[in-house]
Amino acid sequence: MSWVYLFLAGLFEIGWAIGLKLSDGFTRPWATAFTVASLVTSMGLLGLALRALPLGTAYAIWTGIGAVGIAIVGMIWFGDGVSLARIVCIGLIVTGIVGLKLAPA
Question: Transmembrane ranges (predicted)?
């Protein structure tokens, strides 16, 4: 169940990053509320995952999910640049996430 918590925590990390962008410097109340709720949920789920998972592994995977997810969201919805180099680098992060999941703790 810890891996499920960790995956969900990563998804909520993507959510708070999107909310942070949409909050426009915390000037939009609904986006700000979404950001705070997503952040709290992400941290709470990460905390639950850390009951059973090693800290370094869990934190690296959590940030990796967030980094990959928000990079993809940025390219699709926010007009961030798309290039072969960016795609390759995202692939390297995904490879690292998978490697940490599969490596013995």
Answer: 33-52, 59-78, 84-103
How far apart CA 46 and CA 13 sit, in angstroms, is 10
**Mean pLDDT across 66-83:** 96
CA–CA gap between residue 26 and residue 32 (Å, rounded) = 5
* Cα–Cα distance measured from residue 68 to residue 94, given in angstroms and rounded to the nearest whole number: 7
Number of domains present in the structure of the chain: 1
pTM beyond 0.85: yes
Q: What is the pLDDT at residue 86?
A: 96
Give the residue-averaged pLDDT of 62-86. 96
- The closest of 6, 5, 19, 105 to 65, measured between CA atoms, is 6
Q: Residue 15 is part of which domain span? A: 2-102
pLDDT of 60 strictly over 80: yes
Q: How far is 35 from 70, CA to CA, in rounded Å?
A: 14
